[in-house]
Amino acid sequence: MMQPIRVLISGASIAGPALAYWLHRYGFEVTIIERAPTLRPGGYAVDIRGAAILVLERMCILDQVRAADTHMTGVYFVNKKGKIKGQMSEASIGNQHGMDIEILREDLSNILYDLTKDKVTYIWGDSITSINESETGVEVQFINRKPQIFDLIIGADGIHSNVRNLTFGEEEQFKRTLGCYISIFNLENYLNLDHCQMFFTVPGKTVGYSANNNTEAKGMFVFQSESLKYDRYNLEEQKNLINNAFKELTGWETPSLLNKLKESSDFYFDEICQIHMPTWSKGRITLVGDAAYCPSPLSGQGSSLALVGAYVLAGELKAAHGDHTKSFISYEKEMRNFVQKNQKIALLTAGGMIEKSNLKIKLRNLMLRFPIVMSTMFKMITKMIAKAANEIELKDY
Ligand SMILES: Cc1cc2nc3c(=O)[nH]c(=O)nc-3n(C[C@H](O)[C@H](O)[C@H](O)COP(=O)(O)OP(=O)(O)OC[C@H]3O[C@@H](n4cnc5c(N)ncnc54)[C@H](O)[C@@H]3O)c2cc1C
After folding, report:
1. Last residue of a domain, one of 273, 303, 325
2. 183: domain range?
3. Are 312 and 394 in contact (CB under 8 A)?
4. Tens of pLDDT along 206-225?
5. What is the pTM of this model?
6. Which residue's alpha carbon is nearest to atom 29 within ligand 1?
7. How far apart are CA 22 and CA 17, in angstroms?
8. Any idea what DSSP says for residue 352?
């Protein structure tokens, strides 16, 4: 009997477990290695739309994911005294009611993990240190484990992909920064908001608060900045950077939210950027999700791209009977246009999160008072997002 093809996936968030599901279903032997000691919690809500909905349906988890929808009703823009100056309904922010899904990133990650945990091997708290490819396989070394041989290595390890760094070199070649940083952290719902978000915006900075149930909420800080040098694993250093950016801002809940962030033990902090690569594969190694084509966290499109990318990559591997040379080429061919369209859309939608001047903030608030103007504009944006999200015909592998 033929030995199953051994695949090592780096990263257990969205792309990794989704890919593991499909590869296992097609008879591959899958191991996932995740740097964090457990499945990482945290993050705001992410959107799932278009072709990604069909992927969830084919994974038989669409109903489960829909059941975890945040059911957010909208966003309120407040001034420094907390007075509401404008509002947008959720339906107007690119979400097609009854079709698109908005789910907390950690809820989606948990669902994908539960689906795969008994089928593939998960290794926690470790990371690849070197990848050496030969004609017959790839020898991988780890921080904590003994070296091991695999047939294929797939990087699903996010914007700062370790597999990408080891295989293609420095991230700087592929990163397109959008000039902002974002932090998201969990806190108790002390403002007692009900299924809605509040944003306080000053030029170049936004403070946010989002609650989708009675007890828990998410705090958010977004700020424009030149490129910052910091240790990605040093949370205290990152807290200081955020504190420095916001400590002068006394309006609305800013000081309280800064204090809550200080108490937080795990939070998300990253540059808002995209990844553009001329090719995602080299030999027996390829990339999927943010590692290959991050559209930027603000876009909310990252999870849809990751789910579709995982489906197509696994499907092409199956269709080529595991021949990586053929399947990595067809994976890129199938995905490239879809990725480009969604990365473009992401640039359009990301703008709403941060405003450059007081005039722009006033204009936005003024326009939000004229629902007819806004609804025409939002309909156009929603249509464009829906078009991009459907810009791929999914094969039945
Ligand atoms: C904690 C967290 C919070 C997030 N919050 C948001 C959000 O609020 N809004 C939004 O739009 N997007 C958010 N994202 C990004 C979002 O999940 C992705 O854009 C999208 O879902 C695509 O997922 P991905 O699996 O490709 O990458 P990611 O979700 O970034 O996952 C990458 C995974 O790889 C792991 N990893 C990193 N380095 C290594 C290594 N050396 N070895 C092994 N594993 C490694 C990471 O710990 C992570 O689990 C967040 C990501 C994370 C990890």
Report:
1. 273
2. 178-273
3. yes
4. 999 999 777 889 999 999 99
5. 0.94
6. 13
7. 9
8. G
